[in-house]
UniProtKB/TrEMBL annotation:
The protein, known as: ATP-binding cassette domain-containing protein
InterPro entries named in the record: AAA+_ATPase, ABC_transporter-like_ATP-bd, ABC_transporter-like_CS, ABC_transpr_LolD-like, P-loop_NTPase
The keyword Membrane belongs to this UniProt entry's keyword annotation: yes
Record-linked SUPFAM superfamilies: P-loop containing nucleoside triphosphate hydrolases
Domain ABC transporter: 5-251
Domain of life: Bacteria
GO molecular function term, any single one: ATP binding
Keywords: ATP-binding, Cell membrane, Membrane, Nucleotide-binding
Presence of keyword Signal: no
Coiled-coil zones: none
Length: 276
């Protein structure tokens, strides 16, 4: 899918009326099948940008186009159809705690299913081999019938990523997919995402706090700071000096070690994770 933003302004979805916009005059274009990393200090607007790109948040100014169509001019039904072609993977996937992993993963197929098939799949999973295969790509195949609230934060995050492989989407918008993974798992997960998006010809925009991963694995990097594009460059042209300017007053984020949360939950109690 071809994604274009023209001079987009937007408020954070949870912002109060009259709050300063989280995005200011953002213009960018992603070609079909392109893979781009989105970096920038905390609060720069990465999540808000992904929400706008997923047609989940209406910009307060400017225009979004997906394959040449402004989603906000579509009828409700056409907008719903378009959203079926988009995948927004939030940093903390909203997985119902008592659900089995298989059901949570196969939920990614819902946009492509009829009402009755989707209802039936809640009780009789329709594609067990497909779910197994997707989980296997993230080293989680043995968790197929596990309950979501028995998983660690990192395992849940990988379940969220496995959903991408089953979604009938041509634009993947992934918000900090590695935030709860240790460095080895993070590298494996990002390589799997990139390989699978490439194999499907899907456009991928992923926000990352791990600048080293962004530079090593992606060919193009868009940096946000204070709600505006700070640079949009081939990764080979991103110099340490540019990064220092981008993360000025946030140096700890540039050098922060990756968290290692990818260990099993200690007991059956749900792991509660909070979004900012
Ligand atoms: N819960 C909230 N309520 C109101 N405004 C918010 C909230 N969260 C963020 N904002 C505002 O929106 C701006 C952009 O936030 P956003 O979450 O998009 O940034 P981000 O780059 O994804 O940050 P992070 O890397 O910490 O997730 C913030 O600077 C802040 O002003």
């Amino acid at each position: 899918m071809h994604l274009t933003l023209h001079q987009v302004d937007a408020a954070h979805p949870a912002a109060r009326r009259g709050a300063a916009p989280a995005l200011r005059g953002i213009s960018l274009s992603l070609a079909p099948g392109e893979q781009v990393a989105l970096i920038g200090p905390s609060g720069a607007g990465k999540t808000t940008l992904l929400q706008v790109a997923a047609a989940a948040l209406r910009p307060s100014g400017g225009r979004v186009e997906m394959d040449g169509t402004d989603p906000w001019t579509l009828s409700v039904r056409a907008l719903q159809r378009l959203r079926g072609r988009l995948l927004l993977a939030p940093q903390v996937p909203p997985l119902p705690p008592r659900q089995r992993v298989i059901t949570a993963v196969l939920a990614a197929r819902l946009p492509a299913m009829s009402f009755w098939t989707s209802l039936r799949s809640l009780f009789y999973p329709v594609d067990i081999p497909g779910a197994h295969q997707a989980l296997e790509r993230f080293d989680l195949a043995e968790k197929l019938f596990e309950r979501v609230d028995h998983l660690s934060g990192g395992e849940r995050q990988r379940v969220g990523l496995a959903r991408a492989l089953l979604a009938p989407a041509s634009l993947w918008l992934v918000d900090e997919p590695l935030s709860a993974l240790d460095p080895r798992r993070a590298d494996e997960a990002v390589r799997t995402l990139l390989d699978e998006a490439r194999a499907r010809g899907a456009t991928l925009l992923a926000s990352l706090h791990q600048v080293d991963v962004a530079l090593e694995r992606f060919t193009r990097v868009i940096a946000l700071r204070d709600g505006a594009v700070f640079f949009d460059l081939p990764s080979a042209q991103v110099t340490p000096q540019r990064l220092r300017q981008l993360y000025a007053q946030h140096e700890d984020e540039l050098h922060a070690p990756a968290p290692a949360l990818d260990t099993p939950a200690p007991g059956p109690a749900p792991v509660v994770m909070h979004c900012r």
